[in-house]
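note to self: dont lose this again. the chain is below, predicted strucutre after it. 203 aa total, dont forget to put it in the shared folder this time
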Amino acid sequence: MIKSKALVFFMISLLSVLLISSGCSSNKQPAQESSSFEGDLGQLLEKTSKDGAFIFEGLPWLVAKQEIIGQQKEDAIQSEETDRILVEGGLSLDTKVKQTVIYNFQDDQLVSGEYLFITSDDQYFAEMGKELKALFTDGFSEPLTMNLAVLDQADASSRQEEHIIWEGSDRSSLRLNLLTTEQGDYLLQIHVTSPQPEREGLQ
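---
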């Protein structure tokens, strides 16, 4: 009788420990996902900025189109009419986000590029906005348009078609657009442009 009671007590204790351990591990999981999310978006800083100027995919401006084509996978889509290359994917984000990287050329030289992130998940989109605000606040200089707060509610801001613009030390630029698609999905576009010529003064 005493042995059976001891066995029952042991089994109850073991189950309690297992339940507590399970609860702790499930509580830690969101924090790990958040850290991974931030790390993936952090790659955008390396791909789009260098020494106070803006670049695209870590490449120098005016690089030849054929050189970029040679670096791409076979599934890259070329559009001869608009002189563009479209590549699916890019960052290791959740599959609920459709990603497209677009290279824009003029005279077969890279002059601008775009990152498109599209999702129907408003909460995920809002979280992306908050992460980007933190990253860009630390990684970039002050924007020309002082409205970083629009990233705090990226889902709502996309319905208002809000945007933020930064200018690099060499007059290159980065524009972040919060938009919605015709299907009602949320769209975050990052458009990076090569340096612009100096503006001529009034004569």
